Structure formats: C-alpha cells, structure tokens
C-alpha cells in the first residue's frame, strides 16, 4: 500500500530559459534547500535564426506565433531537437527537457501528489513566467511556485517572489526622476514589496562553504603554491546599464600595474561578454609578465578555484553575478567602473558599498587584510522559502 507523503517536498522542477545567469539562481536556491540532486530542468526556448534574433524583445507567446507563421513561408534550416520527457525520479544527474510543457508538469504534480508529496517549482527569467504561472494555475493544491527576479506582473500569481532590492529602485525618488512620465505605467514594480516578496542584495548562486571546500581540494595543487597575496581580476562586459569600452580597459590596466608591487600573483579572467578589444589590450600589457596569469578560456574554468584561493578580487561593476559570488567569501572585493553605471545598477553598487565593498583606485596595498559580513543571499532566501512552505503545512525533505 502506497503511503501518503502529506506535505513533505521531496523533488523540484526548475523552469529555465537557457541563460546561465538566470538558471544558476535556481540551482543556488535548490542547493541551499538541500534539493540540488532531486530536480529536473525544463527549458523555455525562443525561436532562433532568420529574423528571430531581432525579435527577442517580443513576449514569448507572440514571438512563437510569429515564428510559426514565418516558418510556413521560410522553411527552417535548423534540424529539430530530440526532446525526451524527464518527469521521472530525480537522480544526481538531473534531467533536462528542452521544451517546458506546463500542462505536463501540472499533471505530473497532481498524479504523483499522493505518493511523492508537493512539487516545488522554481523559475527565473521573463520567458519562464507564462509556463511557471500556468503550472500553478493548473495545480494550485499540488505545487509551490517560487519566481526569481521580478516578474513584472501581478505578484499574486506566485507563491513567493525572490528579487534583488535594486529591482525596486523605480520607486525611489531618484528612480522616479529618471523615468519619463509616459513610461511610468510600464516600469515595474508599481507598488512596494509585500510579505511574499523576498529581497536580496545581489543574485543567488551556488557558491557556499561546501562548494568552496570542494574547489579548494580540486585546485589546491595549481593555486595553493602561488606567491601571495593572490589578486583575482574578473572582467565582464558592457551592459545597457553599465556602459564602458577601451577607456575603462586602459584605466584598469594602469591601476593593475600600480598595485603589482603589493601582489604576489595576479590572475585575470574574462567573461563571454568581454569585448575582444578589451581582452586583447590586457593580453598585450600583461602576457609577458610572469607575475600575471590570464586564463585564455582553454581547459577547466578556474573560477571556483579563484574564489577559494584568492586573497582579494577586482571585478567590473557590470556583473551582478560575479560580484555576488565574490562577496559571499567575505574577502576584499574592489569594484572598477561603478561610476559608469546607471539606473538599477547604481542602487546595487550602493548596497555593496554599505556592505563594505570598496572602489578600486589603483592606490591599494593588496596585502592589507580587511573583511565584511559575507553576503549570504541564497541561505537567507532558502529560510524564507521554508517559512512560506510551513504556512501551507509543507516542509522540505532533507
């Protein structure tokens, strides 16, 4: 006889959009909840190729309908993917479904509820909202929906929303001054957060003490012998709210040369968004310097090893994710380029300064130790999820 599991949550579904920065926030929360090996990932994908790359700003349903019409007249040259349903028992190697189906997930939640208990649904990113809200609408008694990042619609359609404080920047006096009157009705949020909104400082991620211990073990032979202090420099790329180019690259190059005397080793990494001309400049300036190592993108990504072994970080202001991860270590973090940021990122940088993060000037003594309370957004958000679940009479099976 099958025993009823009541309100014990034993599994989760992640609704992702294929963007690492969004999906990693869901993974980080799952890890903090103890469910990182018991979930399946269902992706919401946008049409690609032809004119579709110019239509990414459209709402996803409209974009797909338009693509369907275009496909009738312009046959696609892209081979269809083999989509395999993955609503099976969770395993350490999580399943990926390349096309999320809200009806299928809701049906799975309802039909397995008596045996396996409620289903936790985590989603992040604008394109996931139609799917995540449909799942909750179709199985309201069987799922608990957590939407990460502000969804820009009525928050009552979610059980819990987790979003950075700077998403509420439009409600501040400074934010209101920057919004043209005609656009104010389209800018979210339209009201202050209520009791089912969890505010974080930065982005959720998977960097916690256990992950750092694992990275330290994996990278010990390569990074532990390096001359100290080890300064890690993470360079992102210009964004809509943080514009910069060669001017910042040249400034950063000069500042790094000025602090070389106080460093044992400098290790530089670029992101996928780093402009080629920026990476080329730093390669030209430092590739011949034995004190400086620049990761060229080949081989294993040293990012987690850097987080574990760095004595200090210099990070460009554009990357909320990289800054959030580094700040979770409590080690010195210096930000470069914050003065070039606008809109919500200005508010994020203000929160970092309040935490204890400093601006990089090129006059620092990197060997000087200092710290601040480590940023612990994922653990704090997980606690709020557990509290919200308790109000439903549900709990996480750890």
Automatic annotation (TrEMBL):
- Entry GO terms, CC: mitochondrial outer membrane
Q: Which GO BP terms apply? A: mitochondrial fission
- What residue ranges carry the coiled-coil annotation? none
Tell me the InterPro entries matching this sequence. Elm1-like
> What's the name of the protein?
Mitochondrial fission protein ELM1
Lineage summary: Eukaryota, Viridiplantae, Streptophyta, Embryophyta, Tracheophyta
